[in-house]
Structures are given as structure tokens and as C-alpha cells.
């Protein structure tokens, strides 16, 4: 890959932020550069200034490139052992609450939150749960709300469901028709989908469980700290946080806010009396 011109890169990210309010300026550089280079190739362009001009001219053009900047890869019961650990370690505690609030941050097209909903249902927790599923990208949220997926995803759904500790027949949860799998709409009833940006937005709930998996890997260290502080401020005391298998809180400044519940599965709980650094939560202003 030809290295990107750092000045053009800077102008591109500043321009997107100024015009559209999406702040990618502190995303991890190496992976963002790969995505920018592939966007240039797709658009037959060689310069980020040219691409910036194109997306500044039309909101539709920006909406076209947004998914490439955010990476929406996901899967049903992704890392099935994580869901098994939730069932074994976290759900028994959640059962002691009369109502539970869950936040799935960076939910992409909904496979993860639907998997969580199925697991909650099988543990008789769904009827007392409100689940907030959020993402920066409105297009994936629209897809997630439908609960309809290509039938080709079902073989991995079936396989992962069993590995994740599912107790029923996986086909109970969807009907297959015309090459699509339509998930039971009742599974979506307790889910509130909304846009939320982990880089610029404030806490909006008090949750008993937050999942934010495979999102923080795209952030640099400073943004990760902001996200951990945001989660600490969005959890009830002793509330749980689950992050992705390639992500870590251990070496971050925020590690003191959380106790480890399951190191292998990256599940943590908020300490009873954390001292939260509120300054990392202030929204960065354009200067
Ligand atoms: C790789 S997907 C992970 C989906 C799911 N959590 C999983 O583990 O399968 C990352 C998601 O994070 C979202 N995302 C990226 N930056 C974000 C931000 N600043 N705020 C909220 N969501 C963001 C992307 O739009 C994308 O849907």
C-alpha cells in the first residue's frame, strides 16, 4: 500500500468532522489508513483531497463511504464461549434484579444483540430486560431493526448457538423464506435501536450490562480511555462490561475502575466506588 500523505489524511478527517460531525481523527492509524486506501481505489482516485471534495459535495456520497470507515463485520454468537460465560457468570447476578438494562454499543447489523436476546430469553431474563442497541452508522441500525438476514448466515448461527450453550433447537428462532431468515419479531420487542457515537456522545443510561465488542480495536489509546470512562459512568455499581477478544482494559488507565470477572472472556465489573476521570468525557471541540 502506498503510504497516505499525512497532510491529506489530516485534511480529510478534519473536513469530515467539520461537515458531518463524525470524528475519526483518533481512530487507530494503521487500520484507518488501510480503509482510506481501499476507498481511494474503489473510487478510482489517488488523493484524499479529491475524495474529500467528492464527499463534501453530497451527503449521499458521505453515506456511501461511512460503512467503509466504520467496519461493520459481525456474526451471530461471535466468540461463542463469551456467551457461555455470560450465561454462567453474569446472568445469575442479573437474575437478582427485578428489572435489567443492557447496552449493546457498536451493535452493527444486529446479529450480536439478537444473540444476546436469545440467551436472555433462555435464562428467563428477557421479559425483565430493556436492551439499548446503538451504533454510529444509521444504515446498519436500519438493517438491525428488521431482524431479517440472508439465509447463508444461518449455518454459522446454528453452529455458534450450540457452542454458546443454546438449549433449544436453533430453528425455533427464525423462519426461512425466499432465501432469507426472518427472526421472531418478539425477540426484537425489548430492543431500542438508536444512534450513539462513542467518540462524541455522553452517557444516556444506567446499565447492568454493557457489551462493546470489536469496536475499541479501531480506536487509539486516548479514545479507548474515553470509551472506558463512558462505560464506567453508564453502569450501575457492580454492573458488567464485556469487550472483544482482541481488546484489553488491563493496560489502560481505566483498569482501576473495574474488577476482572473473567479474564479469558474479557468480562469486567464496575468497582463499588470508582473514581471516574470526567475530563476524558468532554467532547473534543474543533480548533
Ligand atoms: C466490527 S463491528 C462489531 C459489531 C459487534 N459488536 C460484534 O462484535 O460483532 C464495529 C461496529 O462499531 C461501530 N462503530 C464504529 N465507531 C463507532 C463509534 N464511534 N461509536 C459507536 N459505534 C461505532 C461500527 O459502525 C460497527 O458497526
Please tell me about this protein's structure.
The protein is an alpha/beta fold. Helix content is 39%, strand content 18%. α6 links the parallel β1 and β2. The chain folds into 2 domains: 65 residues, no CATH class; 200 residues, Vaccinia Virus protein VP39 (Rossmann fold). The C terminus is likely disordered. The strands form 2 sheets. It has a 7-stranded mixed β-sheet with strand order 6-2-1-7-8-10-9. It has a 3-stranded antiparallel β-sheet with strand order 3-5-4. α3 packs across α4.
| Poorly predicted segments | 283-287
Proportion in helices: 25-40%
> Could you report the average pLDDT, rounded to the nearest whole number?
94
Shape: globular
Largest sheet: 7 strands, mixed
Ligand inventory: S-adenosylmethionine
The tally of helices reads 9
Could you give me the name of the CATH homologous superfamily of the largest domain? Vaccinia Virus protein VP39
Distance between the termini: 31 Å
Q: How many domain regions?
A: 2
CATH hierarchy: architecture of the largest domain: 3-Layer(aba) Sandwich
